[in-house]
Design goal:
mainly alpha; 210 residues; 8% strand; binds zinc ion; 9 helices; three-stranded antiparallel β-sheet
């Protein structure tokens, strides 16, 4: 897996920067953005899950069910959590990766009852959001994003045994050093369920072990 060890020294050359945005580094920044934005809204995240092969699947971050229910009845807090991914990309790389954030953006637009039918709509919706939220991530948040990033990059580099091709990163990494999370039960849960609930099973198994 191509992953930078730190978010310092992002190249100013657009093509070089874009290749970083499209790599595991960019995906990780996106997911950490969700975690930090959600924490600011009072919603702790449990896990970040990122695939070893980033072309296979997007990453995910998980908020516990009881917080999720509170989040979903608070439109503005919910939108902030959803926007965290592309806002972190914007902060770190000076541009959002719209293809990666499409499902987040569509959910935000639905909350706003805005219709999005083409790429131009996506772009203008995101630009409008960024313009209206200049203080979305402050200096402290940027420091947090970079520090969480460094810890996770270190974890991934030192862990060549992803579970079924996924790195499961418990978010207490934010506070502690973490250990190898390879877990037989999680592998079993993942292989047992083929439907859309498989992620929920998977996460439940991981959470029960932590
Ligand atoms: Zn996202």
């Amino acid at each position: 897996m191509q992953i930078k060890m730190s978010l310092d020294g992002i190249p100013s050359d657009r093509d070089k920067r874009r290749s970083i945005i499209n790599s595991a580094t960019g995906l990780l920044v996106h997911e950490i953005g969700h975690v930090v934005a959600s924490a600011k809204q009072g919603f702790p995240s449990d896990l970040i899950i990122i695939p070893k092969d980033i072309s296979a699947h997007e990453g995910m971050s998980y908020i516990d069910g009881k917080f999720k229910k509170i989040m979903e009845v608070n439109p503005s807090r919910h939108k902030s959590c959803l926007a965290g991914g592309f806002m972190a990309e914007h902060k770190i790389f000076f541009e959002p990766a719209l293809h990666r954030s499409l499902s987040d953006i569509l959910r935000m637009a639905k909350i706003d009852k805005k219709s999005i039918v083409c790429n131009a709509d996506v772009k203008s919706y995101v630009e409008g959001f960024i313009d209206s939220q200049s203080d979305f991530f402050g200096i402290k948040d940027t420091i947090n994003i970079k520090s969480i990033y460094r810890k996770i990059a270190n974890f991934i580099r030192g862990n060549d045994k992803p579970i079924e091709g996924f790195y499961i990163i418990p978010m207490r990494i934010w506070f502690d050093n973490i250990h190898d999370k390879t877990d037989e039960d999680a592998i079993e849960a993942l292989s047992r369920s083929n439907d859309e609930n498989r992620w929920h099973d998977f996460v439940r198994q991981i959470k029960n072990k932590n």
